[in-house]
Design goal:
Blueprint (H helix, E strand, L loop, with lengths): L3 E8 L3 H12 L4 E4 L7 H5 L6 E4 L7 E2 L7 H6 L2 H10 L4 E3 L4 E4 L4 H13 L3 E3 L4 E6 L3 E5 L4 E8 L14 H8 L8 E3 L3 E3 L11 E8 L2 E9 L3 E3 L1 H7 L8 E4 L6 H7 L7 H6 L4 H7 L2 H4 L8 H11 L2 E3 L1 E4 L7 E3 L20 E3 L7 E2 L4 H19 L1
Parallel strand pairs: 1-2, 1-10, 2-7, 10-20
Antiparallel strand pairs: 3-6, 4-21, 5-6, 8-9, 9-10, 11-19, 12-15, 12-18, 13-14, 13-16, 14-15, 16-17
Helix pairs in contact: 1-5, 1-13
The protein binds flavin-adenine dinucleotide.
The site of flavin-adenine dinucleotide (FAD) has 38 residues, from helix 1, helix 2 and helix 13.
């Protein structure tokens, strides 16, 4: 079959791929986007509970995890949240700020996909859906063999995303292409994901949410946690999952607002039972599950120092041990990916193969929960798109 020729071919019609194609297209390049699904941007559509947390007002490289913490700096500085917000405003998409600077669509995340498709049309980007890549070859140029037509190009952008949520299209193809061209891929694991408690879980508390401070490996997050059937979820747990490694305990303070030592001192002469005192500050069901039964009915004055400290250990310094995550089907992102040491932080171009680019989640750059992963997709896509436009 005759090969169709493009200035650039982008593998993956997700956030990063579409954005990159639009930037390069606007700069006059003839670009094709290849997407295996029947529609582009499926992860965008399901994101943020259907309202897409498309960026965050406060973004820096400190909000990302990577073996090279400096890698993301340049692209993030050259395409900021305000640059993206400007496009959203131009398309008159209503949005709102939620806590921690998180920006969400007011109506539906579909409006972000529609915006990207309108921009693609204006930039004359050709989008080929239902297109599975068979293999990539490189002679003088890249040849992308697909289940449809074969495409020839000087610039190939790998934007096929990570491994999470395979039901909306994730595949490991991008990592295979990276290895084919000599790149290393760091260990990958599910992240921004619920964790399963080792040994005793709290199925009776399933659905209960608690404001907590969660710490692991020198990182801490103050948000809610949610008890699940097998372990813990909720924003603070998803955040800490970016840092958690098996065998590492996660310390959880179930009463971050409260100085328990001070409370005990104040209640030294109180006739209230301990469980009632604590239930004024924490869900009664959680108190019952965490307070040793033999202590629940005691008064504070009846506690010796060892008992006080045991209660503080349970409630203020709970050493939660997890043995697994809820896995790829439930993880919002992939931790790890194509090593950033071998990719230009200015252009996202491979240091080994001229004309080959990696953008978005496929790279070893993982953001916190809160719109950071999309901001990385837009920023890395813009960096590659501009470089392609200029080259
Ligand atoms: C449930 C959920 C909710 C999320 N919510 C948010 C949020 O609110 N805010 C936020 O910042 N981040 C969120 N994320 C993370 C965010 O969606 C990703 O980080 C982001 O989509 C990554 O963009 P990408 O373009 O690199 O990859 P993707 O958006 O995953 O796009 C990759 C594309 O490549 C296609 N593809 C893969 N393999 C092939 C192949 N072999 N051939 C052709 N095409 C292929 C895929 O079908 C997909 O369309 C969420 C993720 C999930 C799973």
């Amino acid at each position: 079959m005759a090969e169709r020729r493009f200035d650039a071919v982008v593998i993956g019609g997700g956030a990063a791929g579409l954005f990159c194609a639009n930037v390069a297209g606007r700069l006059g390049r003839r670009v094709a986007v290849l997407e295996r699904n029947s529609q582009v941007g499926r992860k965008i559509i399901i994101s943020g509970g259907g309202r897409c947390n498309f960026t965050n007002l406060d973004v820096s490289s400190a909000n990302f995890v990577s073996q090279n913490p400096h890698f993301a700096k340049s692209a993030l500085a050259r395409f900021t949240p305000h640059d993206f917000i400007e496009i959203v405003k131009r398309h008159k998409i209503p949005f709102q700020e939620k806590k921690h600077g998180q920006l969400f669509c007011r109506d539906s995340s579909r409006s972000i996909v529609e915006m990207l498709l309108k921009e693609a049309k204006a930039a004359r980007v050709e989008i080929l859906t239902n297109t599975e890549i068979v293999c990539v070859e490189h002679r003088e140029r890249f040849v992308v063999r697909t289940t449809g037509s074969d495409l020839e190009t000087d610039r190939l952008v790998v934007a096929s995303g990570g491994l999470s949520f395979p039901k909306v299209g994730a595949t490991g193809l991008g990592y295979d292409i990276a290895r084919q061209f000599g790149h290393s891929v760091t260990d990958t694991r599910p992240s921004l994901v619920a964790l399963r408690l080792k040994g005793r879980a709290f199925p009776d508390l399933s659905g209960v949410s608690v404001d907590a401070e969660v710490k692991c490996g020198g990182n801490s997050f103050r948000e809610s946690i949610l008890f699940t059937h097998k372990g813990l979820s909720g924003p603070a747990i998803l955040q800490i999952s970016n840092y958690w490694k098996p065998e590492q305990p996660v310390e959880i303070d179930l009463l971050p607002e409260l100085d328990l030592t001070q409370l005990f001192d104040e209640k030294q002469n109180s006739s209230q039972q301990l469980s009632n005192i604590l239930s004024e500050h924490l869900s009664k069901r959680v108190v019952e599950a965490f307070l040793p039964q033999k202590l629940a009915r005691k008064r504070v004055g009846e506690l010796d120092l060892a008992a006080r400290s045991a209660i503080e250990d349970k409630i203020k310094r709970w050493q939660a041990r997890f043995d697994a995550t809820e896995g790829w089907d439930r993880a919002e992102v992939t931790m790890g990916g194509v090593s950033t040491d071998e990719v230009s932080s200015q252009t996202m171009e491979s240091k080994f193969q001229p004309g080959l680019y990696f953008i978005g989640e496929i790279l070893d750059v993982t953001g916190w929960l809160g719109g950071y992963n999309f901001q990385w997709a837009w920023a890395s896509g813009a960096a590659a798109g501009r470089a392609i436009g200029k080259s």
